[in-house]
Every structure is written in structure tokens, then in C-alpha cells.
Specification:
One of its GO terms (biological process) is amino acid biosynthetic process. With about 375 residues, the chain is α/β, with parallel strands linked by helices. The chain has 7 helices and 22 strands.
């Protein structure tokens, strides 16, 4: 599942009231604002992306004051559409373009499908709303590189839109008119973006201390709890659950924001069911925090720290397949056993049962694909 997102439309209120709603949205992680009046003032509130019909908008909007909102009658010959012409012109000028369409009839549904291959985003507004037009448009545009956004009023509407036809819309947009509403919808979007990984139990077959290598510590901007860590391994298809440094130790103080992850060439799972090399991670990158149940959440890298440290090789077997990872050889470095308990690499031995994630697909540049790739 991909990361879902939320945008807000500012309410028809005086600036001071709009400002409060926008500030609450920013605090809730929503940084895209559709506003046709106060873009200069909004930019002063923070790092905000403005969606409007002004030339300097971050995302140029077509459809408001056009056929999309019904201000202009839509011809049955969609090739004559003014919104379609405006979208093509804006794209030719190098703009990021969003189409705004009220789905009042089948013809407007067809306009959305016609605009899909041209624009970057489509906002769909339901009037006498049923989920059927949304299902139709998602189905018609499933292979088109466009982000579909449904207008909703509350968290229930957001949940429905984000789950329609299993894939759901890419995002939701709503008129921000209540503090609780903003936080509830932001929370629903966050929940819809989470992926659960089906962790398997593998049997350790070999443990071998090695010499020194360049090891990466990943410090995040989140505090991890016991039972949380990251999926890391030498093979992109086979990753171990490496525990965070959230436990107290007689050797060092806990660092609950940190995963002592492994050598520079190891893979780590990141949002979007993708992997990255540990050596690639820099401040501001996203990583996936995973708990013992396979539940996930996204965190940002605060920094990654590469140091020369002694390493240890751990091999395990799952259904006849051998998987491997290298970790720093230190008492405070832990993987997770079959009982969801942290297991220090200093204590791990052949026969131990540990939690791993096995990907069926191969990966190319970190993306899962149907291809035969042998990793050993």
C-alpha cells in the first residue's frame, strides 16, 4: 500500500479564522492548502504548498470557474472541453496541474477520465454522492500516472474513499472547519497509509564473528518502544527484524530513537514497500518502524552515523531458503525471537527461532518486481 495524503480547502471565513484552521492542519501533518484568496499570507505560516489558479501556485488548479464546477456548460464532445485545453496549456508550461471536477452526471465522470492522463492530480467532488462514480474513475485510471483525490467531510468519508476498490483514492481533501475534524481526518489518513508485514519464524543455522566493517546507526526523529525496530538484511527479499536501542543496558544508556542497523551495504525497508541501502540514508529520509506484530509507522531520519565496528554474520533458514544479515558484534545489538523478545547477537546460537520478513518478489532499485534475481 502506498502512502495516502490529505489536503485542505480553506473555509469561507475571515483570514484570522482561516489562519487557525491552516495552522491546525500544518500541526497535523497536512501541508497542502487549496485557497484562491490568501496565498501570500498562507506562505508566511510555514512550508506550505498552495493549490490555486494563480500562475505562481505550487499546483495549478483548473476547473473552478470552468466546466469542473459547473460554471461553464460541458459539451458532450469532450474534445472541446475548456478545462481540458487549460490543463494541456498549463502542462506545456511545465506546471504541476490539478483538475477540480464535481461529479454531477456521467459526462463529468467521463471528463475526469479524459483529464487523467494529462494532469498530475484530480479532485473529485460528489454532490449526490455515491461510491459508484468513484469506483468507476479509480478503475478507469488505475494504470494512469495521476493522483486521485476525493472530497470528504469527515473521517468516515475519508476511510471509505481511501479503501474504495481495495486500492482506494490516493488522497482526500476537505473543507477545514473544525479542529477535531482536521485531527480525525489526519489520523485516518495516517492509519490508511500503514502497512502490516507478515513476519515469519526462521531458524538460525550459523553465527560467525567477523572482522571490522563500516556500520550504520540510524537515528530517527521518533521514540521507539520495546518491540519496535526496522527490517534489515543482506538480501532485499529477506530481512530480519532488528530491535531498536529502546532497552536499558548495563553497558550503555538506552537510545530509543536509534536502530544500530548493520553494515553499509545492508538493505532497510522504507515506506512504499521499497528498500534502500543503509549507506544511502541521510537526514530527512523516511524509514519504516516495524513492531513484533508486523505493524508499521513512518519515521524520519535525524541522522545516520557510519563507524568502523566489529561485525557478526547471522544465517537462518526459512522453508529451505537461507537468509543472512550482518550486524555489529556487540551485546546491545538485538534481533527478535519467536516469542517477541529481544535476542542479543552475543547470545544468538544455531537453533534459535527469530522473526524475519520474506518477500516473494525480486527487487530492482529497491522496488518489488516479478523477476528472477539470485542473492547469496
Amino acid at each position: 500500500m502506498q502512502n495516502k495524503f490529505a489536503w485542505i480547502m480553506t473555509p469561507d471565513l475571515p483570514w484570522d479564522d482561516r489562519k487557525e484552521m491552516i495552522t491546525t492542519a500544518l500541526e497535523s501533518g497536512i501541508s497542502y492548502v487549496l485557497d484562491l484568496e490568501y496565498s501570500d499570507k498562507i506562505r508566511k505560516l510555514g512550508n506550505v504548498n498552495i493549490i490555486s489558479n494563480e500562475d505562481d501556485a505550487d499546483i495549478y488548479l483548473v476547473g473552478i470557474g470552468g466546466e469542473g464546477d459547473g460554471a461553464i456548460d460541458l459539451s458532450e464532445n469532450l474534445s472541446d472541453s475548456i478545462d481540458l485545453a487549460n490543463a494541456k496549456k498549463a502542462k506545456s508550461e511545465g506546471k504541476t496541474v490539478c483538475a477540480y471536477i464535481k461529479i454531477t452526471d456521467k459526462l463529468h465522470e467521463q471528463l475526469a477520465v479524459k483529464l487523467g492522463p494529462i494532469v498530475d492530480y484530480i479532485i473529485l467532488i460528489g454532490t449526490d454522492w455515491t461510491v459508484i462514480p468513484l469506483e468507476n474513475i479509480i478503475a478507469d485510471l488505475q494504470k494512469v500516472d495521476v493522483e486521485i483525490i476525493a472530497a470528504v467531510n469527515d473521517s468516515e468519508g475519508a476511510k471509505l474513499a481511501l479503501e474504495t476498490l481495495e486500492h482506494g483514492t490516493d488522497g482526500v481533501i476537505f473543507e477545514a472547519n473544525d479542529f477535531a475534524q482536521i485531527k480525525d481526518i489526519a489520523s485516518e489518513v495516517d492509519n490508511a497509509s500503514k502497512v502490516n508485514y507478515d513476519l515469519k519464524i526462521a531458524t538460525v543455522t550459523n553465527v560467525k564473528p567477523l572482522g571490522s566493517g563500516d556500520r550504520v546507526c540510524v537515528d530517527t526523529t521518533d521514540m521507539m518502544k520495546p518491540g519496535e525496530g526496522m527490517l534489515i538484511g543482506s538480501y532485499s527479499k529477506s530481512l530480519f527484524l532488528v530491535h531498536s536501542e529502546s532497552l536499558e543496558s548495563e553497558y550503555v544508556a538506552s537510545r530509543p530513537f536509534r536502530v544500530n542497523a548493520g553494515p553499509v551495504q545492508a538493505y532497510v525497508m522504507v515506506p512504499g514497500n521499497k528498500t534502500r541501502y543503509l549507506s544511502e540514508l541521510v537526514a530527512g529520509d523516511e524509514v519504516l518502524i516495524v513492531n513484533t506484530k508486523g505493524e508499521t509507522r513512518t519515521a524520519y531520519v535525524g541522522r545516520s552515523k557510519i563507524e568502523r565496528r566489529p561485525l557478526i554474520l547471522i544465517e537462518a533458514e526459512y522453508e529451505g531458503k537461507t537468509i543472512r544479515t550482518l550486524l555489529q558484534n556487540a551485546e546491545t545489538i538485538r534481533i527478535v525471537d519467536a516469542d517477541d523478545k529481544p535476542l542479543s547477537v552475543a547470545d544468538v546460537k544455531p537453533g534459535d527461532k527469530v522473526k524475519v520478513y520474506i518477500e516473494k518478489s525480486a527487487r530492482h532499485f529497491g522496488i518489488a518486481i516479478d523477476e528472477t534475481i539470485i542473492e547469496q
